[in-house]
């Protein structure tokens, strides 16, 4: 083999490193062998560095260190500065894997300064990525983000696509740590696509693995499982057993989060078996620790203890203090459940010492909490209180740090957004300065006009409010005060309407209004709008007629399109004389379009009116017939919202006093099954709101169906600020909930609803959402309604005497399995079963503790309340409830309580 052949083989090895570590490792080995034979020092040094990189990826750290030392010595001998920089950078990667962040940072800083000194841009970009990794692992996320962005810019400048993808992956990981999920997903997905395009399978697996971890963190366990299963298959195809075993651990974590514990355990066993041929003690220790956690949840305490002890032994050997801490806490939990309190206390002491050394506040708080429970159990209240105080102090400090981290995250996101905005501004200055200045001048002129009109239009209602407020202070009669208060309310509504229209116009003009489209039955939406406007029509003796084609679906933002239809229907009422007819029709005009027409018998439109119909603040010839007010912005907003949906709006009129028809044409949804009711209904039904959840994805998704608007709005408002629950829809009828809801975990539903009743809706909801839990929330507390709801399939029954915090607590509890009742209903359910159920023998004997839990369940207590009563954890109670269900051959709380009552167990 010639030197030229050697160089070509080295280039091939380097190329393979972008695709498969295993293939690259073989080629580097071949190059090393021939380089030694030919005594070609440059190729020998480069192949040793490349081989070390492959060994680090596979977890063979001792071999990597030996090969790097040899490589560095050769580079210094032959005075190859770029090669030396690459080896120093790789030494930083090795130090990171060895857990020595100080040494890693020193290596990366040296690589960076040497690269700058010798003008080696690629080395500079690599070193920046390394520094970003170290800062990220140290928790300094703003610095990590800055280093990764600098690295990304350097790699883009030299057009190194692989390095660009690696920088993107690093950015995605940092964004994930900052809880900026949108940017994290964007960066990781783009990194994955680039790796796939380049054929870099190992890196693609790493990017996918990070995506899967993010999906798990967001609570999207199904998506995470699919991602990790693909990684397992891909890892097998390229022979990367380390990546395969890591993905299996991640699969087990996602399964455990879904309480699929037996599958999680078998997956971890398979991972451990695979690791027998790997030299990756850190992964082996983590897998054993995860196995111990699953066994602990399954209450296999002896087996859990064995797993934790083995993990602890490996962790000590590799100086992994964090995993060592986890093992001590796991051992303490297992021992406490086996009533070996003295041994548990010893484990907790070690855990506390370790947590303080490595500054793990979350686990330090956990250790103090367990210690407090242990002291309480052995009857030492003084030391129990002292441990609890320590737990409280640490937890408070931890929460403060979390708040600071969140503030830091927001600050970083703000800086990133500010930087992007500044870049856009610079671009605007250089490319479109003249056009931008013209737009600014037009915007300023419009703003001046807007302020003038707003000031004028707000002046009258403000004077009304001020005048009537003064009168109220002088009046002694409550009736007169109430009448004046109503006048104030009407004036306030006028002001609110104007301000809302002004803000919406500004948002539309700036292009900042975003649509949240979902498949919608247009007929149901129009019925709801008509029903909402019917009272105003009746005040003027007007009649609203509906002629609606069913099964017309469109992708709409419900809130925005309802606003369009509200505006057009209310205008028809406003500009029509008393006793007239208003027609609302809907038709499918083609395969791809639906048309809505709102026709009135009012004052019509002149030719001049038609030319300025959809402009801002345009005064038309028609005037409101009942003294109603107008902001002059409604039709302008209608036009912009319809066009945002890809539709068009226009008006037709034969002339003055001959009425007008406003028409809206919207794209229809293709290949969709009908959502609307099959029967054509002439009477309108109320509509609700369905929205995407912007809070933490791990929250329980709750929908509310309630025709009491005060309660509906209060529940919706409370859910906005709840840490564990999120509102995905608030509806005034079951029909609209069925039409608009896409996904839901818990449904809180009234019985007495307009249209179909809550009890009738239970089966329909269960058909569309088989896994949803349905909890009735009603004033009906009689036996007939309770029994009908339970027979229909309700998972809970709460009376409206229940406080809102309790309602939300029950909504959370019902997701933990079984049924939930407010205490008064629980007693009625018990009485019903005692009265009517035939006596039968228990399927199995229950322990005293299980009978106590069953009695508390029959009293309507939640798992959390039972845990507090019995001084144990919610998780322990949940496992004991599962055992009760198993012994009584039951599948729900009501069934278990029923059997226990029949057989006299409680």
In words, what does this structure look like?
Helices cover 67% and strands 8% of the residues. It is an alpha/beta fold and 906 residues long. It has a 7-stranded mixed β-sheet, sandwiched between helices. 43% of the residues are buried. About 5% of the residues have low confidence.
Please name the defining characteristics of this protein.
about 900 residues; five-stranded mixed β-sheet; seven-stranded mixed β-sheet; 14 strands; about 10% strand; 36 helices; alpha/beta
Low-confidence stretches: 448-460, 671-697, 836-843
The best one-word shape is flat
**Strand ordering within the main sheet:** 8-10-9-11-12-13-14
Summed over residues and divided by their number, the pLDDT gives a mean of 79
The main β sheet shows up as:
7 strands, mixed
Cα radius of gyration in angstroms = 34 Å
Structural class: alpha/beta
* Fraction of residues in H or I helices: 55-70%
**Proportion of β residues?**
5-15%
List the helices and strands and how they pair.
Blueprint: H1 3-16, H2 21-38, H3 41-58, H4 61-78, H5 81-97, H6 101-118, H7 121-137, H8 141-157, H9 161-177, H10 181-198, H11 201-217, H12 221-238, H13 241-257, H14 261-274, H15 281-297, H16 301-317, H17 321-337, H18 341-358, H19 361-377, H20 381-431, H21 433-474, H22 478-510, E1 518-521, H23 522-539, E2 543-548, E3 553-556, H24 558-574, E4 581-590, E5 593-599, H25 607-611, H26 634-644, E6 648-652, E7 661-667, E8 689-690, E9 700-705, H27 709-720, E10 725-731, H28 734-740, E11 746-749, H29 758-768, E12 773-778, H30 783-792, E13 796-799, H31 804-814, E14 820-821, H32 823-836, H33 848-858, H34 863-870, H35 874-887, H36 893-902
Parallel strand pairs: 2-4, 9-10, 9-11, 11-12, 12-13, 13-14
Antiparallel strand pairs: 1-3, 4-5, 5-7, 6-7, 8-10
Helix pairs in contact: 1-2, 1-3, 2-3, 3-4, 3-5, 4-5, 5-6, 5-7, 6-7, 7-8, 7-9, 8-9, 9-10, 9-11, 10-11, 11-12, 11-13, 12-13, 13-14, 13-15, 14-15, 15-16, 15-17, 16-17, 17-18, 17-19, 18-19, 19-20, 21-22, 22-26, 23-24, 24-26, 32-36, 33-36, 34-35
């Amino acid at each position: 083999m010639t030197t030229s052949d050697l160089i070509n083989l080295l280039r091939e090895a380097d190329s393979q490193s972008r695709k498969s570590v295993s293939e690259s490792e073989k080629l580097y080995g071949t190059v090393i062998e021939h380089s030694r034979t030919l005594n070609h020092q440059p190729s020998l040094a480069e192949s040793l560095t490349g081989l070390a990189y492959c060994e680090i990826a596979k977890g063979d750290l001792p071999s990597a260190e030996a090969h790097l030392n040899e490589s560095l010595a050769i580079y210094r001998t032959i005075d190859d500065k770029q090669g030396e920089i690459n080896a120093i950078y790789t030494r930083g990667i090795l130090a990171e894997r060895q857990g020595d962040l100080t040494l890693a940072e020193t290596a990366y800083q040296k690589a960076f300064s040497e690269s700058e000194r010798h003008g080696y841009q690629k080395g500079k970009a690599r070193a920046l990525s390394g520094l970003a990794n170290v800062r990220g692992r140290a928790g300094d996320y703003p610095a990590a983000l800055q280093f990764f962005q600098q690295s990304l810019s350097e790699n883009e400048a030299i057009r190194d696509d692989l390095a660009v993808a690696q920088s993107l992956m690093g950015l995605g990981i940092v964004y994930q740590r900052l809880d900026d999920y949108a940017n994290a997903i964007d960066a990781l997905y783009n990194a994955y696509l680039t790796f796939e395009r380049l054929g870099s399978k190992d890196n693609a697996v790493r990017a996918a693995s990070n995506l899967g971890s993010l999906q798990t963190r967001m609570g999207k366990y199904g998506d995470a499982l699919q991602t990790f299963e693909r990684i397992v298959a891909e890892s097998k195809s390229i022979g990367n057993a380390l990546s395969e075993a890591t993905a299996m651990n991640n699969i087990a974590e996602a399964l455990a989060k879904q309480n699929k514990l037996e599958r999680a355990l078998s997956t971890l066993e398979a991972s451990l078996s695979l690791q027998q041929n790997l030299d990756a003690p850190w992964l082996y220790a983590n897998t054993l620790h995860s196995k111990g956690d699953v066994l602990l949840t399954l209450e296999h305490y002896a087996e859990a203890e064995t797993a934790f002890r083995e993990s602890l032994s490996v962790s000590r050997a590799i100086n992994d203090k964090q995993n060592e801490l986890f093992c001590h806490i796991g051992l303490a939990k297992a021992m406490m459940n086996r009533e070996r309190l003295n041994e548990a206390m010893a484990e907790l002491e070690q855990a506390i010492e370790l947590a303080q050394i490595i500054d793990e506040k979350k686990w330090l708080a956990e250790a103090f909490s367990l210690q407090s429970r242990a002291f309480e159990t052995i009857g030492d209240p003084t030391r129990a209180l002292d441990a609890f105080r320590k737990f409280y102090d640490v937890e408070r400090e931890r929460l403060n740090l979390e708040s600071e981290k969140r503030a830091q995250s927001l600050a970083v996101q703000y800086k990133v957004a500010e930087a992007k905005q500044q870049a856009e501004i610079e671009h605007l200055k250089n490319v479109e300065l003249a056009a931008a200045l013209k737009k600014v001048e037009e915007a300023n002129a419009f703003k001046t006009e807007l302020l003038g009109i707003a000031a004028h239009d707000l002046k009258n209602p403000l004077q009304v409010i001020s005048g009537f407020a003064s009168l109220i202070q002088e009046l002694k009669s409550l009736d007169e005060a109430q009448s004046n208060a109503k006048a104030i309310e009407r004036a306030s509504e006028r002001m609110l309407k104007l301000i809302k229209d002004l803000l919406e116009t500004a948002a539309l003009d700036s292009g900042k209004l975003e649509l949240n489209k979902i498949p919608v039955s247009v007929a149901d939406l129009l019925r709801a709008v008509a029903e909402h406007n019917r009272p105003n029509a009746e005040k003027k003796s007007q009649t609203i007629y509906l002629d609606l084609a069913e099964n017309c679906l469109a992708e709409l933002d419900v809130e925005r399109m309802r606003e369009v239809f509200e505006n057009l229907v209310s205008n028809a009422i406003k500009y029509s004389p008393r006793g007239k007819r208003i027609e609302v029709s809907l038709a499918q005009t083609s395969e791809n379009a639906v048309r809505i027409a709102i026709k009135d018998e009012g004052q019509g439109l002149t030719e001049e009116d038609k030319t300025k119909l959809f402009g801002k603040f345009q005064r038309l010839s028609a005037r409101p017939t009942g003294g109603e007010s107008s902001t002059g912005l409604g039709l302008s907003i209608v036009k912009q919202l319809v066009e945002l949906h890809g539709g068009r709006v226009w008006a037709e009129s034969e002339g003055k006093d001959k009425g007008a028809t406003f028409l809206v044409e919207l794209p229809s949804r293709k290949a969709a099954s009908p959502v609307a009711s099959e029967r054509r209904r002439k009477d309108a039904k109320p509509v609700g709101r369905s929205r995407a959840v912007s809070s933490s994805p791990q929250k329980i998704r709750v929908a509310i169906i309630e025709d009491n608007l005060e309660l509906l709005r209060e529940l919706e408002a409370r859910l906005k600020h709840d840490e564990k629950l999120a509102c995905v829809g608030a509806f005034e009828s079951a029909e609209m909930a069925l039409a608009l809801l896409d996904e839901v975990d818990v449904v809180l539903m009234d019985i007495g609803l307009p249209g179909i009743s809550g009890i009738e809706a239970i089966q329909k909801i269960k058909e569309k959402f088989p896994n949803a839990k349905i909890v009735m929330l009603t004033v009906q507390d009689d036996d007939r309604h309770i029994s009908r709801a339970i027979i229909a399939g309700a998972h809970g029954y709460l009376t409206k005497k229940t406080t809102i915090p309790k309602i939300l607590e029950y909504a959370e509890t019902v997701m933990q399995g079984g049924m939930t009742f407010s205490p008064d209903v629980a007693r009625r359910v018990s009485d019903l079963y005692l009265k009517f159920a035939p006596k039968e023998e228990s399927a199995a004997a229950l322990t005293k503790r299980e009978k106590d839990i069953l009695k508390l369940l029959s009293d309507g207590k939640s798992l959390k309340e039972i845990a507090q009563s019995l001084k144990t954890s919610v998780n322990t109670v949940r496992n004991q409830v599962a055992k009760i269900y198993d012994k009584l051959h039951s599948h729900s709380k009501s069934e278990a309580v029923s059997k226990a009552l029949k057989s006299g167990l409680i």
